[in-house]
Amino acid sequence: xxxxxxxxxxxxxxxxxxxxLGWTVFILLPDPVFGPEQDxxxxxxxxxxxxxxxxxxxxxxxxxxxxxxxxxxxxxxxLVASSAIEYRDxxxxxxxxxxxxxxxxxAFCTPGGxxxxxxxxxxxxxxxxxxxxxxxxxxxxxxxxxxxxxxxxQFGADRLFELIVLTTPISxxxxxxxxxxxxxxxxxxxxxxxxxxxxxxxxxxxxxxxACNATAGFFEKISREGxxxxxxxxxxxxxxxxxxxxxxxxxxxxGCSTELxxxxxxxxxxxxxPPRADAAEPSGPAADAGxx
Length: 292
Hints:
3% strand; mainly alpha; three-stranded mixed sheet
């Protein structure tokens, strides 16, 4: 009997060790273990949290601001029409939303392609190309599934599995979705992921009438103005000048146009948003916002 118990204990210890090692490898894999379909489900949970919490600011209703959404969807449609977009027919790129918060210079794309843009960013930028560049960068993070990789490492495979696959209590799903939202709006991607998103933004833009290096224009404006106007998400990556150089080099190697497109509609887009509370320029986001 004693020998049997010893064998049983050894078997249990080995089983636990193998299981733990398996989950560790699972979490540290360089690519998400779940398919892109689960990215969409994960994104839906984040969308619910944004709508229910209101912490990021109120989401403008498309039926109340049809002109603003017409402009924004037009820009996104050009980007996702690129031949380099892999999940065009799966991700929710048609579910674009505007967050009314003039103090935040940001946009982000959840896992699964749900795009959010803050009014502060739209007011701040000087050309439609530059917003297209920011959105191209955000879409690249979703396409390359950078958030899913980060979230998988952050939360662990077991919790992520429960969140997007199993039936869990509403309160638990809400708590995790809010945590994921905090990760998205305060996410510091690795330099490799940032560089990859910059490169892919050039690819997407090269298939449009926008300047293919338009993402660099956003960084140039931020770097030029500096001070407390620099969004917190950029302050975590201080080498903006290097990224401008890299983006311009990528555009040069691609041989795509770096001429700004037609921004005749830009002023109308800005005017279609709710009136700003004051004339002061927005500062950086109240909390970490986004990723670049």
